[in-house]
Give the backbone structure.
Amino acid sequence: MYQKRVGTFLPLAIILFIAILACSMPGFAAPSQAPVTPQIPTVPPAIETSPPSSPVTEEPPPTNTATAAVVHIKFPATQPALEKTVYDVDSSGTGPEKRAPYGDSYKINRLERPFLQDMTYVSDLDITAINLGQDGEWYYLSVKRAGVDPNNALGINYGVELDTNADGFGEFIIWASPPYTAEWSTSNVQVFADKNHNTSGLSAEKSDAPYSADGYETMIFNGGNGSGDDPDLAWIRMTAEKDSILQFAFKKSWAGSWFMYGALADAGLKNVSNLDYVDRFTEEEAGSPIKDKKYYPLKALYAVDNTCREAFGFAPTGFEPMLCPREIPPTPEPGQPAEQPDQPQSVSCQPPAGMVCITWDPIKCECHGFE
C-alpha cells in the first residue's frame, strides 16, 4: 500500500521540482511582473597599453598653409632727413578747366595727366614735388601731391623708378599699392626689375609706339614674403601731416651709390610690365591734356603723372634722357659777383599766355625747353 502511494506521487514531485527550478533561472520573469528594461552596460575607460610590436608608419604633421609673418631686422627712421627737392608741374590751378597748364611732352616721356578719361581732375594723382634724403642705411624719397588722400577710392599706385646707369632705361621700379598707413610697412610694396633692357622700348628719348615689350618683367621683392627676399628691402608710409606726403625707404646697399630717380602716380593702366606707356600708344591714340594740342582731350592714356629724373651721386652731362632741367647761372658782368643758384627768389608765377614749356620753373619764372 505504501509503495503504491510513493509510486503515484513520485512523478508529480519531480515535475513540481523542475517547475521551481525553471522559475528561479535568470532571464525568466514571472507572468505577474512588468517587463524589465534592459540596462546598457557601462563601457570601462580605455586602458593604455604598450604599442604593438609590429612597426607603425607615422603620418607627417599637417602642413601649415598660412603665410608666415615677415620678421624685420632693420627699420627706416621715423624722422628721415630731407635734402634736395625737385618740383613737378602742379595742375590744380587749371584742373577745374579740364586741362593741364603745360608739362606734358609725349616726345620725351613726360606725362602730366592727373585726369580721368573725361578730363575730371584728380588732385591725389598730381605729383607736385619729390625729395630725396638719406642716412647711413636708407634712401628716402618723399612724394608730395596736390591732393591729401593717397587712399583715394580710385586705388592709386605710386612708384619710384631707378635708372642705375643713366641711359634712360629704368632698371628697377618700387611699386606701392593702397592702403597707405602712417606706419612704415613692406606688405604693400613690390620691386620689379627690367632684366632685358626694354622699359623704354627701342630708344630712351622718344615714343616708339606701337611697340610690344615686357617692361619691368621680374619681381624681385614682394613685401618680404618671397623666397630669398631681403625682408627689409623697400618700405612705404604716409606722413601724419595734413598734406599726407608719401615716403618710400629703400636700402642703400641695394640701390648703390649713384643713380637717376623719378616718381609716378598711376590710377589708369597700373601695369609695370607696360612701362614706358608712351611706347604702347601713339600720341594720337593717347590723347593730350593740353587744350591747344591737336590731340586734346585724353584718350587711351590717362590718370597717370610722372616726374623728370634727377641725378644722385654723380654730375650729369646734361644729355641724360629724362634729366630734370639744370639751373644755369647767368654769366656775370665784369667785376660783378656770380649769382648763387642756391638762393632762389621768393616769387611764384605761371608761364605767359600761349607759351608751351616742357618744364616751367615757378620760382625763377623760367621756361626750360619748348615744344
In short: Residues 84-326 form one domain. Residues 2-24 form the longest helix (23 residues). The radius of gyration is 41 Å.
